[in-house]
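Subject: complex prediction, re-run

Hi both,

The earlier run crashed halfway through, so I resubmitted it with identical inputs.
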Amino acid sequence: DVKVTQSSRYLVKRTGEKVFLECVQDMDHENMFWYRQDPGLGLRLIYFSYDVKMKEKGDIPEGYSVSREKKERFSLILESASTNQTSMYLCASGERGTVYNEQFFGPGTRLTVL
Amino acid sequence: QKEVEQNSGPLSVPEGAIASLNCTYSDRVSQSFFWYRQYSGKSPELIMSIYSNGDKEDGRFTAQLNKASQYVSLLIRDSQPSDSATYLCAVIRRGSTLGRLYFGRGTQLTVWP
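This time it finished cleanly. Structure:
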């Protein structure tokens, strides 16, 4: 079974702090994704990566950056956390270059910024 | 027009009934279609994938795809209270080697005993 893990289930940070969210997958997938999910707004793509050190902006990249130094690990960084970044953050991984492209999600990190 | 639209719900059906969830997409060249189930407070779980026109059955779940009408649906037969969740429709565009998914906002389903 595909396994995607995230470093924390719940996280509380203060405004202005630098926040790191880590995601690790064990299926040798090329693609990894970071989403945030808010009530009424659905899933929104922040960033994705299709290879080590490669990244693409999603729909809402402002205030976020990412790092992918190893194939299995994709990090989301909030450079200076703000209260409007309080959300559920979901990481996903999937194969690249096939028509199937199924994505599998981690358990999510619920981040609260005070 | 949104990339992927779902009937907003919420949808409420009695136990044992058929629940029908619908999704339309705007990009005619979309090629791959997925249904995810998300329980409250949990992450989305992939339950069905469909790539060709027609029906695909897996247990109590049937996905239906009509590319000409740009329509994909999920039928849940013999609905159970444990099926109560939000169902997300997602699509991938043809030629998208990067595999980006476009999600609908989801339909909340409640199955009452």
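The longest strand of chain A covers residues 42-51.

- K.
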